[in-house]
Amino acid sequence: MITEDPEPLPFFVYGTLRPGEANHDLFLRGRTSAEEPGRLPGAVLYDGPGYPYAVERPGDEVRGELVTARPEAYADLLAALDRLEEYVPGDPHNLYLRVARDVVRADGGTVRAWVYLAAPRVAARLRARGTRIEGGDWLSRR
Asked: How would residue 141 be classed by pLDDT, with cut points 50, 70 and 90?
């Protein structure tokens, strides 16, 4: 189902890892070579307990940042973000799944990136009774 890409991918972040948010400096400072605005088409954003969840849904989009890790920091950053998101490949108790998706850059081009999406059981619960973040932008909730 989920396979590792042969090349390191950038990360699309949409919540607490965005600039100015609680986890940005803790996890990304000094580990990135580029950070730029991006949009994840085909997804909607839901409010969580202090952090958001992106759930796949055609016709919507989530706003965030496309983060490129410095090559020498990639493996450590990937492991750190998996720990932060409590993602373990194949674990049925995951809250998130790390998946490769196409993200739209500010210039309209697309790039394949890792995205942490709500795991199926979490996504089902959110679709049924979650609170959507209108406009798909975590920063707009303030």
From this structure: confident
CA-closest candidate to residue 43, choices 106, 97, 109? 97
Q: Give the start-to-end residue ranges of the domains of the chain.
A: 11-128
| Count of beta carbons in the 10 Å neighbourhood of residue 78 | 17
Query: How crowded is residue 124: how many other Cβ atoms within 10 Å of its Cβ?
Result: 12
Q: Domain 11-128: give its CATH code.
A: 3.10.490.10
Query: What pLDDT, in 10s, does the model give residues 47-87?
Result: 988 899 999 999 999 999 999 999 999 999 999 999 999 99
26 three-state secondary structure: helix
Q: Is the pTM of this model over 0.90?
A: yes
E strand or H helix at 123, and its extent? helix 120-129
Separation between Cα atoms, residue 114 and residue 75, nearest integer Å: 13
**What span, in angstroms and rounded, lies between the C-alpha atoms of 115 and 134?**
20
